[in-house]
Amino acid sequence: MDIGLVGLGKMGGNMRTRLRDGGHTVVGYDRNPDVSDVASLEELVEKLPSPKVVWVMVPAGDPTWETVKALGELLGDGDLVVDGGNSKYTDDAVNAELLARQGVGFVDCGVSGGVWGLKNGYALMCGGSDENVAKVQPALDTLKPEEGGFVHAGKNPGAGHFAKMVHNGIEYAMMQSYAEGWELLEKVDLIDNVTEVFDSWRSGTVIRSWLLDLLVAALEDDTHLEKLSGYADDSGEGRWTVEAAIDNAVPMNVIAASLFARFTSRQDDSPAMKAIAAMRNQFGGHAVHTEPPVGGDANPTP
Known about the structure:
Strand order of the largest sheet: 2-1-3-4-5-6-7
Structural class: alpha/beta
CATH topology of the largest domain: Rossmann fold
CATH superfamily of the largest domain: NAD(P)-binding Rossmann-like Domain
Number of strands: 9
Strand content: 5-15%
CATH class of the largest domain: Alpha Beta
Order of helices and strands: EHEHEHEHEHEHEHHHHHHEE
CATH architecture of the largest domain: 3-Layer(aba) Sandwich
Low-confidence stretches: 293-302
Shape: elongated
Mean pLDDT: 91
């Protein structure tokens, strides 16, 4: 299929490559001209045959709002916009209504896979009507892993991003558990090789996971995580998950605690947060914070 892709960063750039490798024609636009195929959104839309499908992969909030609004003015009846960023699920109904005024369809799609998605495929969680999801299904089939990894979570706008939000809340809690276990093993004199302990858990145990694999990779590179400061950002989705739990009176003790632990990391150099930072960098290429050079300022390193 022919598809437009707006936002060619760490995720979007790799998605463009995977789609092209799968035989699709992709017209990509990014504010960075070095990676962009076209000079503007207008040119991107002009190059697409009708019905036009444009996938948006830009930061949540104002960048997404502005991009969707601009596309609504450029697209027409029967066209489709897919928001594949980490937008808050409540934004989706607003965007869907805005586009519907122009006869443009809307699909919200939570995307998970980070920098490894190019090779392994992306987990995709979609919200929207059957008709709109069908318009982008060929691209979804190429982006997802060979087995599983795709769900049409619900027909109402926001279903996909809500599913992805809960996914990320669970991710917060899983990483926090591994990180606290790592800190305790590091603390005692009884354990001689913490990295080998974690590595042994990757086979045959009930706690094996891809996150565990990534933590082991980080520890093999930096055994005591001395290159990192104990600071971990939160993307916003952990907060939204806890807010939704409060709104629906759902007890969410562990996920809430893992979110608050990230706030703690901004006050002290927490050893557990070094492990969180390491895992986030491994799976998503997220920035880590390092100590400043003598006479210099501390800056995140990509």
